[in-house]
Amino acid sequence: MNSPISAQPAEPPAARGLTPDELDELDALLEDLRTRAEEIPQWEFCDGFLTALVCSRRLIGPNEYLPMLLGDGEVLEVAPDQPLPQLPVFANAEQQARFLELFGRRWQAVQESLDLPVEQRTEDNAFHPEVEDVRAVVASLPEAERAEIEAHDIPSLGQVWALGFMFAVENWPEEWAAPRDKEAAQWLNDALDGIVALTEDDTGKPSVNLYDENGPATISDRRLDDFSDALAAVYDLRQLWQSMGPRVESVRKAPEPGRNDPCTCGSGKKYKKCCGA
């Protein structure tokens, strides 16, 4: 598995599906949405949410995921061959369409990366979550500005991304229910534990700065290990559900009438003298 340091914004656009300018555009778009709604997440959260959708057992469409991420969570009713209704948080239909376009391209890039055979993975085409070492960024600021920010909670590496991933898992629990196969269920549990570990604070002794090797350390060795484990977990989750396929709803067969009961066809005869003969 690649070093988590390589997951920082150094890979070429082809590996993420979006250019640096388009990522800046997404940040600006989400900031604009916050002028109309308070609970609009950062792109890192959105990327974790998106990655969970890619790994989900069932393909979840925009009529479900868009209101869950940016609306009230209610599924949008869409008639066949009709466009998706506009969520109130978007300024106009064009803004919503642009978000979905960029979201979809990132989705495609993540899916392609996760579906690559191990022998074909390279530094450029392997899966790289959109994460930022916020603590390192804050550490590089002037003292007065840094002190103001440090008065608030600063997320650890990958924490916001992992929270976005688990937000999707928690809101589609039926798609993440443990399989009956014990080995597969353990595989699922171990992989999700790897993601959940990133939702916790990095409380270890800082040893690395991802942006400046001469700057103050902001990430612990344990966090780097947890980050690598989470990357492996994403591959495992995609492979698990791909191998099992969509859930099959069991259909309960209606009980047959007793042989002396009236036949269900309505003939008036006993079942044994009619359809049960």
TrEMBL record:
Pfam families: SEC-C, UPF0149. It comes from the Bacteria. Residues 1-20 are annotated as: Disordered. PANTHER family: ADENYLATE CYCLASE-ASSOCIATED CAP C-TERMINAL DOMAIN-CONTAINING PROTEIN, UPF0225 PROTEIN SCO1677. This is UPF0149 family protein. It comes from Giesbergeria sinuosa.
